[in-house]
Design brief:
- This protein has 4 helices and 12 strands.
- By secondary structure, it is an alpha+beta fold.
- Among the domains are: 102-163 and 251-269, Beta Barrel (Thrombin, subunit H), CATH 2.40.10.340; 170-245, Rod shape-determining protein MreC, domain 2 (Thrombin, subunit H, Beta Barrel).
- The termini are far apart.
Length: 270
């Protein structure tokens, strides 16, 4: 019943299509000039109608090729980023070679996993702890220079007090003139050297390094360059500003300075 109802509803269209097919067949088999013109018109119409249809597989093919090219582009971008990271890491390690030539120390690489984890302390949280040989007071450096000291060490992590913390202090030295002082934070990422008598030799552009005095931080670690020296008759000490080598806001990985295995054994013997 459904089929009969469908045929009944579409009977007019079905009759029209059948009539057109019969007419087209008769015109196609006729040699009359008007039939020839009809066949030419039909061919032209079919050619125009077939053109978009022929474009479909080509378009699908182009889309597929574009998708493959996009995937290849993403893969190449990933490889480029990996190469860039490897080059930057190589540069950082090359800069660190000056420290690694010192046999009395080992250097433990650590990643920064959080910033300012401790309240009221400019600090970093590292992914290394006492299980890795990290202990309170050890120097933390980058390929550029001094970053800070270990403030707290847990089993699998450690908190580093940065040189930009208001309570940070380290013994430093003017590399050129061998003048000693105490490194402290001044403001922002600017440091200062305190305790330098006003008659001592300190100039703008002098290189500041750690002195090693006190036995906490090894000597010779680069700190920064002197950017300003102020002398006052009323003050006993110079005002010495230092621009640090380390960019504290961009720290992603650091090195904890550990005593070498031989030094640990000699320390235990004492």
């Amino acid at each position: 019943m459904n089929l009969l109802a469908l045929l009944s509803a579409w009977r007019d269209w079905i009759a029209l299509v059948l009539a057109l097919l019969i007419s087209a067949t008769m015109m196609n088999s006729s040699s009359h000039p008007s039939a020839e013109r009809f066949r030419g018109g039909i061919s032209a119409i079919l050619g125009v109608a077939a053109a978009p249809v022929m474009l479909i597989p080509r378009t699908v093919k182009v889309w597929g090729e574009n998708a493959e090219l996009r995937a290849e582009n993403i893969r190449l971008l990933g490889e480029r980023d990996n190469w860039r990271d490897a080059v930057l890491e190589n540069i950082r390690l090359r800069r660190l070679l000056g420290f690694r030539d010192r046999p009395e120390f080992d250097y433990l690489a650590a990643e920064v996993i959080a910033r300012n984890p401790a309240l009221n302390l400019a600090s970093l949280l590292l992914d290394k702890g006492t299980e890795d040989g990290v202990h309170v007071g050890q120097a933390v450096i980058t390929a550029e220079g001094l970053a800070g000291v270990v403030h707290h060490a847990g089993k699998g992590s450690a908190v580093v007090q940065l040189a930009t913390d208001r309570n940070f202090a380290a013994s430093v030295r003017v590399e050129r003139s061998r003048v000693d002082g105490i490194l402290r934070w001044k403001q922002g990422e600017t440091l200062r050297v305190d305790g330098v008598a006003r008659n001592l030799d300190v100039k703008k552009g002098d290189r500041i390094v750690t002195s090693g005095l006190g036995g906490v931080i090894p000597g010779g670690i680069p700190v920064g360059l002197v950017t300003h020296v102020a002398r006052s008759r009323e003050e006993l000490f110079l005002q010495v500003d230092v621009d640090p080598y380390v960019s504290f806001a961009r720290l992603e990985e650091v090195f904890v300075v550990l005593p070498a295995a031989g030094e640990k054994q000699r320390g235990g013997a004492r």
